[in-house]
Amino acid sequence: MANRRCIQTLISRCFSISHSPNPSPYPILKTLTIAPHFLLQTEYSTVQSLTPTDPGKICSAFPSFSRHHCSDNRTSMGSIDNDGDEEEEEEEDDDDDKSEDEERVHLSGKSDEQKAEEAAEIGYKVIGPLEESDRVFKPYEPVFAVVQVGSHQFKVSNGDSIFVEKLKYCDVNDKLILNLVLMLGSTAQTIIGRPVLPDAAVHAVVEEHALDAKVIIFKKKRRKNYRRTKGHRQELTKLRITDIQGIAKPEPIPSMKTEKRATKVEKTAVSA
Amino acid sequence: MALRGVWQLNKLIVSYCDWGGSSRGVRAFMESHLPAFKEISPQLEVVTELNRGQHPYLKGLYRNKNERVVSVKNMTPEDILPCATRLRNSLGRKVVKLKTRHVTKHPSVQGTWTTELKM
């Protein structure tokens, strides 16, 4: 590396001398005579071919030189390639910085697509439109689904409420669709997914984003004078399950009600 | 903060003092972030109250007659906004440790398992 740096300084000096208003070949020769004795040790034997004829031709001399491979498994390219490597390294550093900056920009302002992707990956949810005047809250149906949100799984039915780790990209009163459904079941039928059921969907509504009660984390090592107290409140989201789709639901029992109504009507008719 | 589609926070009272230094953040919040907050939640009644000589607080009145008071003494407007948002986003329920993360009225669909159950 030190050798490389020396060569680079030499070459830069050569260029500066060549581009200076009064070029004289002598200082170039002097610098070049110093160089070869350690150039032979390294793979940079390109400078040997340097003929200080014209400043313009120095540049052209470099790329025509062939490679000499050494035992160090370094690519023995010409000095332009060394410069190229330098530039590449600098570019890589710039790219790293730029990518970091881009990452920071990404974290601060994500696009809607990225948010939806993240939501789909992490929380397995898709944000639907906000609650309008829909009749979303139906009466209980005897159908259940096993749903995964984040790393937790729940056996869920219509009208249940679930406390889940805070979901980032949804507000209160938003409709969600939970995609990861592992199992569906009703009174007559059970459908098991391997591992997920592709056509099933569970609809939910966000009820609340709130903090859990405070948990005190107390650490102590006895006889060592070490005691720590820390309070922690977990951020939770409460979801209310409104609908389960993907399984044939048993029909509600209106026959009882119609019979009762019929009997009532008959009774009233009889009494009248 | 919506139980079955009904918003639970009825009223938000922002109490501040126009002289005290602990209310500096709230006064700035009222100028900068409060109009946007009002637009986000149009169903919410936001009231600003002058309370001279007292430290500032946010008071949330919920539908279940519950009151949640959050002191915003010496806080910056950027810190007060999440406090107000948290009041808006929560139900008025008492903050108690959860027994279960799954609250249901019908725990079994296909019948509760017993040892005598034969498939």
Q: Find the count of extended strands of chain A (DSSP E, 2+ residues).
A: 11
What is the CATH class designation of the domain at 8-89 in chain B?
Alpha Beta
For this structure, the quaternary state is heterodimer
Main pleated-sheet profile of chain B: 4 strands, mixed
- Estimate the strand proportion of chain A: 25-35%
Total count of strands of chain B: 7
Termini of chain B, distance in Å?
43 Å
Q: What's the CATH architecture of the domain at 8-89 in chain B?
A: 3-Layer(aba) Sandwich
CATH superfamily of the domain at 8-89 in chain B: Glutaredoxin
Strand arrangement across the biggest beta sheet of chain A = 1-5-8-11-4
- Biggest protein-protein interface? A-B, 38 and 23 residues
Binned strand content of chain B: 25-35%
Q: Specify the helix fraction band of chain A.
A: 25-40%
Largest beta sheet of chain A, briefly? 5 strands, antiparallel
Shape of chain B: elongated
**Secondary-structure element series of chain B:** EEEHHEEEHE
List low-pLDDT spans of chain B: none
Poorly predicted ranges of chain A: 27-36, 38-66, 68-107
List the keywords.
heterodimer; A: 272 residues; alpha+beta; 2 domains; five-stranded antiparallel β-sheet; 7 helices; 36% helix; B: 119 residues; Glutaredoxin; four-stranded mixed β-sheet
Architecture overview:
The complex is a heterodimer of chains A (272) and B (119). Chain A has 7 helices and 11 strands. Chain A has 272 residues and is of the alpha+beta class. Chain A has 2 domains: 2-65, no CATH class; 123-252, no CATH class. In chain A, the strands form 3 sheets. In chain A, strands 1-5-8-11-4 form a 5-stranded antiparallel β-sheet. Chain A has a 4-stranded antiparallel β-sheet with strand order 3-2-6-7, with no helix packed on it. In chain A, a hairpin with a 2-residue loop joins strand 2 and strand 3. In chain A, helix 1 packs antiparallel against helix 2. The radius of gyration of chain A is 38 Å and the shape is elongated. Chain A starts with a helix and ends with a helix. The relative contact order of chain A is 0.09. Chain B is an alpha+beta fold and 119 residues long. Chain B has a domain at 8-89: Glutaredoxin, CATH 3.40.30.10. Helix content of chain B is 24%, strand content 26%. Chain B contains 3 helices and 7 strands. Chain B has a 4-stranded mixed β-sheet with strand order 4-3-5-6, covered by helices on one side. A two-stranded antiparallel ribbon of chain B has the order 1-2. Chain B starts with a strand and ends in a 16-residue tail after the last strand. Strand 4 of chain A pairs antiparallel with strand 7 of chain B, so a sheet runs across the interface.
